[in-house]
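Q: I'm writing up a methods section and want to include an example of the input and output format. Could you take the sequence below and give the corresponding predicted structure tokens, formatted cleanly so I can copy it straight into the document?
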Amino acid sequence: MEPSLLGAGPLVSVVIPTRNRSHLVKEAVASALAQDGVPMEVIVVDDGSTDGTLQALAPFGKSPSEKSPSEKSIDVIVQAHRGVSAARNHGVERSRGRWIAFLDSDDLWLPGKLSAQISFLARNPHVKICQTEEIWLRDGKRINPKRYHRKPSGHCFPKLLERCLVSPSAVLLCADLFRKVGGFDETLPACEDYDLWLRIGYSHPIGLIEKPFVVKRGGHDDQLSATVPSLDLYRIRSLARLLLTQPLSSGQQEEALKVLAAKCRIYGEGCRKRQREEEGQAIRKLPGILGKKLQGNAVSMADDLLLDSIAGRRSPFS
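A: Here is the clean output for your methods example:
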């Protein structure tokens, strides 16, 4: 391993958030503990489970006196149910590693994932975040991602605006960078990963290892994409907050406003069809209000209140 990456304590902190997935989280933990060649700690954050998750994790949580020198164990944090963003942030708050790796409790890592990423970062010291390719399963059967899901690399901000192209389970990123940008936004019930990668991607290149080291398992009923309605509303909120709070270049502002306008138009049309015309009108107005604000032009008090209602957030790391 590259000497410059070594230091006291764990090099990588693995954070696994989970809620009521006792049947899956054991496999995720085992795949993390199977990683070799990288000093690491594994932190599981139980977000208020009620299904026996703690009992399922008990065999992995042996104290130093109970395990052999070659055995690995985990730290388990229990919190009241606050959502996946709060669980991930809580895990990072308690972590000691220079690098953070997230693993969703329904996903798996293949052997060599962390060592491949650490080697990549050693060869590319200017890169502070990288991801690997994935194998996608739905209901146990392999599926091929669409062309528009292709993972980007390098400075890829325009591509990140359209959709979430970075997977939490595939990422390894610098802990200092994660804290600097404010971590996951705990006010977002969904699209929190899309939001974070935008706040990182406008100023940082994202490395890509073009080999699958993650098995992404979908199709179960408790996935956020299946349980949270109106996902595009949260992408709209993320874009508005990004434009109001981050020092984007004029070109990046133009690109973000263009994508925001398209998403607001589609969402507003959906509101009209569902007889939610007032909400649709407010959303359709948003790009124009933001454009004026960014150009330094005055907006009405009502428009300012609309922006404040969408853009308000507080970082847990501030």
